[in-house]
Amino acid sequence: MKHPICVNSDCKICESSLCCTKINNFGVKRSGIEILKNVNLHIHCGDLTAVIGPNGAGKSTLLKAILGEISHTGELQFLDANNGTTKPSMGYVPQKLDLDSTSPTSVLDLFAAAHTNLPIWFTYPKKIRERVRESLALTHGEHLINKRLGELSGGELQRVLLALALDPVPHLLLLDEPVSGIDQKGLELFYQTVSTLRKNYDLSIILVSHDLNLVAEYANRVAFVNNRTIECCGTPQEVFTNEKVIQTFGLDWSNRFQRVEKDWVANALLV
Ligand SMILES: Nc1ncnc2c1ncn2[C@@H]1O[C@H](COP(=O)(O)OP(=O)(O)OP(=O)(O)O)[C@@H](O)[C@H]1O
């Protein structure tokens, strides 16, 4: 049965998918300047949708608008497995977080602040500590529980924030890939973790990414943001062979796909 909010008459996925999120005609203005217009995106549960585009295109703005952190026009609809439309619960990992490196706040304090009303000077109940450890284990970060936030590396902080975004598991997970502070190995570990979570929880994920290699390897949908809107959206193959995408990133970025076992990418870019 086709989901009632799916307006795409050709959508085969809706027939088998359990839930679905629609971003309908989003527009964003900031300081009177139009940042995004006519943005439409359709996401099924289990989809990892990578949002790519040049610097300043509006990728982070789109995530913040979906979150409701900044105002926008248009609407966000979510259809759950019981065919009810609700406001989706969301987890979010920002691109950067300005932390006071001297602050005594620990990873455990951060989680406890999100899950309890206990003052910070109380000893946390054992069950809280266990819940935090379990959450951190999802992102291979259980050893970080007692570390101060200010002493975490970029990759460690990202793992902690991802674990926090998953507790409880949301309908929609929004990830803004950090542009600095994480090495390639850390980035790959992050993508592998996200990919495992996606499969285990059938999560809908929107991931802003600057690494086209990793996008080609892990995403099943790609949205290209350019000229204040989503200029093309589809499978990685459809998007990476789109003329506008090639124009933006240049032919030389085809080299980045060396590790990807998909000949179509290289072939499409070499013609
Ligand atoms: N608070 C703001 N007021 C006005 N303009 C803003 C504000 N925040 C962002 N912008 C502008 O909105 C545009 C989109 O910014 P955004 O951070 O969403 O881009 P992005 O695609 O995520 O960029 P990057 O790839 O560099 O992270 C930019 O031109 C930016 O200057």
UniProtKB/TrEMBL annotation:
Organism from which the protein derives: Desulfosporosinus meridiei (strain ATCC BAA-275 / DSM 13257 / KCTC 12902 / NCIMB 13706 / S10)
Question: Which PROSITE patterns does the record cross-reference, listed alphabetically?
Answer: ABC_TRANSPORTER_1, ABC_TRANSPORTER_2
Keywords from UniProt, A to Z, are: ATP-binding, Nucleotide-binding, Transport
Protein's name according to its UniProt entry? ATPase component of Mn/Zn ABC-type transporter
What the entry lists under Gene3D superfamilies is as follows: P-loop containing nucleotide triphosphate hydrolases
Give the matching SUPFAM superfamilies: P-loop containing nucleoside triphosphate hydrolases (SSF52540)
What the entry lists under InterPro entries is as follows: AAA+_ATPase, ABC_transporter-like_ATP-bd, ABC_transporter-like_CS, Metal_Ion_Import_ABC, P-loop_NTPase
Q: What is the similarity comment for this entry?
A: Belongs to the ABC transporter superfamily.
